[in-house]
Each structure stands twice: as structure tokens, then as C-alpha cells.
């Protein structure tokens, strides 16, 4: 019996390692995309070594990550982050937007992407929403759009729209975002498009009824992060940060993968104070199966009625198996 228990313990360890690997930055079975609003990310925050270490660790989880709320006239902060993440064998490049915003407090978007995955940037543009001087523009910060070529995915070319929505004009900006999708499709000649970022799409800024009335809530689009999902460190459960996915093939790929909110405070066992020194938002993450993935015959199919079909939640499936093995160990010990 002791030998059996030892074997089972080793098996559970292997399963646990598989779970960790599947969601780590080194796993090639999934292409990992994220959006992260690093609250007021400028010279002050980037000068704090302990905070930058946490941000670096977060960024290195992903193949592509959109960083929002970069506020630094000098432009040194995004470069400093790039230097920080290019350590310990990692190699990233950065695509930085112009400084955007109507007010004195302007922000950059920055896409960081891993070089060793073969990712290349095909094209990029800032969406023209009208003249700020004449007061006819729609977005507080114009969407920044990048077309990526991703050889590891069955959907090779994806346009990603980065957007940080003004909390005072959420409905207007998300309504206008439908036009941005069309502009991206026309310019890039693809329909595989992801919009992502801090949309302030929840709580007092956007009701669930208002969200359902948006044209982007049609069957043509998929919202992996549901209304009411907590994406912030605040006491309330507000689904501010979102993905919106367009294009039948990309939607199918996303539904065969997974999405989640990365709660770095619990993952890294941080105090509330330390967590808030990083940001008041969590990163949202999207896991797309790569062309190397072979569906596991032992993987249960998980269906969530509220968000439509979402087959194969890998992490949950492995967790169920892990729990079952632990239960067997317990029975063996009791006998």
C-alpha cells in the first residue's frame, strides 16, 4: 500500500505541474494575450524596484500584452519596462502609440510581444475619430490598432484594437467601437479582430441592460469576460476590463481555449497595500490553443450557458482530475 500511495503522490505532482505549465509563459500549447491597465504608470511607479519586479513578472506571462495608462512625457517609462522584461532569457519588442487624450493628462498604449514565438507586426494605425480642436472626436483616447502575424495559430493574422474608455462616455465610445471594427476589417482585409482594454464596462458606468443594447453584443461577436466579472482590486465586482472578439474562425478558436482574470495579489501572495501599489486593475487574459495542441480525450467539456458555448476549459478539467487523485489517496490512507 505505501508504494501505491507514493505512486499516486507522484502522479498528482505531475498533474499539478501540467496545470502550472499550461498557464505559464513557457507553455507553447497556448498563445497568451492580455490587457492590463497599470494605474498611472509613469516615472514615480517605474522608479519603485519592488513594483517593477511584480509588473515584469506579470508581463512575462504573455506572448502579447497591451499596457494602458502610461503617463510619461519623456517616454522613458515604457522603455524602462521593455528593458526590465528582457531579462532571464526573455526577448520582447514593443509597439508604442502616440500620446493620446484631449486633456493635459495624456496616455500611451504599448503592445509588448515575444520575439521567440515568431510574432511580427504587419501594420498599425491610430483610429481617426475626428478633430479634437473642433470638438467632434468620439474617443477620449483614440484606439490604437496593430495587425499581428502569429505563425503558431490557425488564425495567422489578427488585428488587435487597444482602447482605454473614458468612464463618462462609456456607451458612446463602445457604440463607436463598432465602426472601429469595420475600419480595421477594411484596412487590414481581415475579419479576425480583438478589441481589448479597460472599457469601464460595468457598475455605474455601464448597466447590464445598456451592454445588451450595444451593436457589438450581436452574435457576430464574442465577449469572453462576462458582465459582473471582477476585474479590479476594489471591493465591488466590476467588469471594467474586457475582450471583444470578431470573426467566426477567431471566435471558434477563442471558445476552444480559455479566458480569465489574473488575480496577481493572491497568485503572488501580496498584501492589499502592495497590490494597489501595482495597479487597481487586474490583467485580463485570453488563451488561444496553438496549432500544436491535440485535444485531450480525458478532458471534460465545460459549457457555460450564460456566455454561450465555451468548450474545453483546460485548467478546470485538470483541476477535476487532480482532485480525484487526491481523493483516491485519502481513501487509501484511511484503509
UniProtKB/TrEMBL annotation:
From the UniProt record, give one GO term of the biological process aspect: DNA catabolic process
Q: Which organism is it from?
A: Octopus vulgaris
Q: What is this protein called?
A: Deoxyribonuclease-1-like
* Gene Ontology molecular function, alphabetical: deoxyribonuclease I activity; DNA binding
Q: Which domain of life is it from?
A: Eukaryota
Keywords per UniProt: Hydrolase, Nuclease, Signal
**Entry keyword annotation includes Nuclease:** yes
Signal recorded as keyword: yes
What GO cellular component term, any one, is given?
A: nucleus
Q: Give the residue spans that cross the bilayer.
A: none
**Residues annotated as domain Endonuclease/exonuclease/phosphatase:** 35-281
> Which Pfam family is an annotated match for this chain, by its short name?
Exo_endo_phos
Q: Which InterPro entries match?
A: DNase_I, Endo/exonu/phosph_ase_sf, Endo/exonuclease/phosphatase
User: Which first-to-last residue range defines the signal peptide?
Assistant: 1-16
Protein family? Belongs to the DNase I family.
